[in-house]
Specification:
homodimer; about 350 residues; alpha/beta; 434 Repressor (Amino-terminal Domain); Rossmann fold; six-stranded parallel β-sheet; six-stranded mixed β-sheet; 12 strands; about 40% helix; elongated; DNA-binding
Chain lengths: ~350, ~350
DNA sequence: ATGAAAGCGCTAACAA
DNA sequence: TTGTTAGCGCTTTCAT
């Protein structure tokens, strides 16, 4: 048992089902029970040093790693934090970057799961994802923009920019109210009075807040929001494009549009291009989020920046704290600020 | 059995272990065996319509979703494609965006797993991740920039921009050779002759190729690459910063630097700022990748763009094809092209 | 049409 | 110190 014939190793690797080296393969090779292998691999007490060394040799020789699936099923915990999202798009990937950078060196693995097969607005992906992963596979979850009530779970959950749910999980979001107000006031400062709005997803709290703030900022400036200048863009570029086309083809069209997020701002810009409307000379556009693509656009998109990576990092900390039984705030809010770039300019002089 | 008292539902939900509704809970509620529930949920034949309907009612009432862990352990397949990466950073998240957009509407879920706890250069994360997830949890994998030989598996694997391994899995990458050559030639066109290079990770094929192409382009122009003008940046901003500091403090410093990726280009720019060297007046910098951050920088980074999202989409298609037993190319290469922006300019006149 | 039972890979009591 | 055994939640024969 002090030496392993190489051909035995080969046999193990080339076995009919070479799809994975299991704990049984190791046990057989090492001539011990699976329980012993498990103890060695997990550093439990009660194994003779010689046996442990011997097992480790085989483990390395065979390249064994425990199946995360099997161990989590049995153990009930993994050291992995799940990030549940409706798809990998600029918003959620910024969050991911923040979480990943922040989790570096901590003893947790990250698992981002996109359960939405058809579409991120396939209702209920977040419920399904939680149900499928919670209790096994992940120890805690960060859910990006959930729009429905989440299943009750003992597993720590933190939401990012969620639907408003009084007894939902703790969540972090940015100050949409102040951000949207600042955006609108900036447009006002530029001399615009005809300011439209592309609304976001109405099932997300942030969209409602942004609309309300836009409306209030106008009212405070003594301007009555024109109902013809507000449309639903659903936070999506294509939808926003469609509705912006309509909005901009009216006789009396706005000279500035505040879009509820950057994607819809891009949709507005697409529509403006389509109609030959010059930006920012004839139309100012301001978005929300400041995804990297905002700065890449030509001209660069003026927008309300939220610190997405910081939001991710904060959410991660909250989940970890919950895991450790610490108390966490029910709600953490981070600031948003206007980033002035190339899609906004002074209001055109003539109607 | 036609109606379920609400308090029974409540009991199920509030059970001591409310962490997850299992198939047993459903079976008990519905007064059938777990086998029957399983059949219903999976649409198997041999269940009376009435029973099926009854079970479905309970499933919905309880919000049951099968545990991906348990079912994959038993069934051996999951319909989820894993994307294994060393961390969520701009390069890998662009790939993710491409995969996600492309996978939309297909019947696969996506699971991105970051197994590197300490650092993306923690050697062997890709081997470990594959071992831990393969055979269970995921049906196929896309591995982003693996640097070591991967374990043998029956599970379909596609690599993106990998270490050169003759009997490694099929892979997709961009034409680093042509890209790096074009970058260097562009610098040459601008009149630069003193052109340095920040190398990438030497355990990645792309880094070697880019260095070679840079060297060859210089030789073809009758210029001998100065050994003092090449340093290892490991594809990392901080490392590149360090070595660029050294390189730029030499008496005879380059007037242009080709960095093996955008992150190292940023490192070079950091160093230049530190030293009060103006970009692009005194130093031209060109990167590689064209991550979104390249266009966000000030000035915007000139770089060699690779179609990262397309690369992801192609890799996804390959995995799916392999899953279906179709033949796939061993190697797919996509083009790279120089994107001229603000960090490059004519060579300064004086030494 | 339905259910009992085995087993996927693993860990943790418990026995030896 | 080591191995035997039960069982995590699920699916799938195989009886009934």
């Amino acid at each position: 048992m002090t030496d392993l014939p190489l051909d035995e190793v080969a046999v193990a690797l080339d076995a009919p089902n070479a799809s994975r080296v299991t704990i049984h393969d190791v046990a057989r090779e090492a001539g011990v029970s699976v329980a012993t292998v498990s103890k060695v691999v997990n550093g439990r007490y009660g194994v003779a040093p010689a046996t442990a060394a011997q097992v480790m040799t085989v483990v390395e020789k065979l390249g064994y790693e425990s199946s995360i699936v099997a161990s989590s099923l049995r153990r009930g915990s993994t050291n992995v934090i799940g990030i549940l999202l409706g798809g990998f798009e600029p918003f959620s990937t910024e969050i991911l970057k923040g979480i990943s950078a922040h989790a570096l060196g901590r003893d947790y693995q990250l698992l981002a799961y996109s359960g939405a097969i058809a579409d991120d607005r396939e209702v209920g992906w977040e419920r399904r994802s939680v149900s499928r992963l919670a209790g096994t596979l992940i120890d805690g979850a960060i859910i990006v923009t959930p729009t429905v009530t989440l299943p009750r779970t003992k597993m720590p959950i933190v939401a990012i920019d969620p639907y408003h749910d009084p007894d939902g999980p703790p969540f972090v979001d940015c100050d949409s109210e102040a951000g949207a107000r600042a955006a609108t006031e900036y447009l006002l400062e530029l001399g615009h009075t005809k300011i439209g709005h592309i609304r976001g997803r109405l099932d997300l709290e942030s969209a409602l807040v942004r609309e309300r703030a836009w409306r209030q900022a106008l009212l405070d400036a003594g301007i009555d929001p024109n109902p013809a200048w507000i449309r639903d863009g659903g936070y999506r570029r294509e939808w926003a494009y469609e509705v912006a086309l309509e909005m901009l083809q009216q006789n009396d069209r706005p000279t500035a549009i505040f879009a509820a997020n950057d994607q819809s701002a891009f949709g507005v810009i697409d529509a403006a291009h389509e109609l030959g409307i010059m930006i920012p000379e004839q139309l100012s556009v301001i978005g929300f989020d400041d995804i990297p693509e905002a700065a890449m656009a030509e001209p660069r998109l003026t927008t309300v920046a939220q610190p997405l990576q910081e939001i991710g990092a904060k959410a991660f900390d909250m989940v970890i704290d919950m895991l450790k039984g610490k108390h966490v705030e029910q709600h953490i809010r981070v600031p948003a600020r206007v980033v002035k770039r190339g899609t906004t300019g002074p209001a055109p002089l003539a109607g």
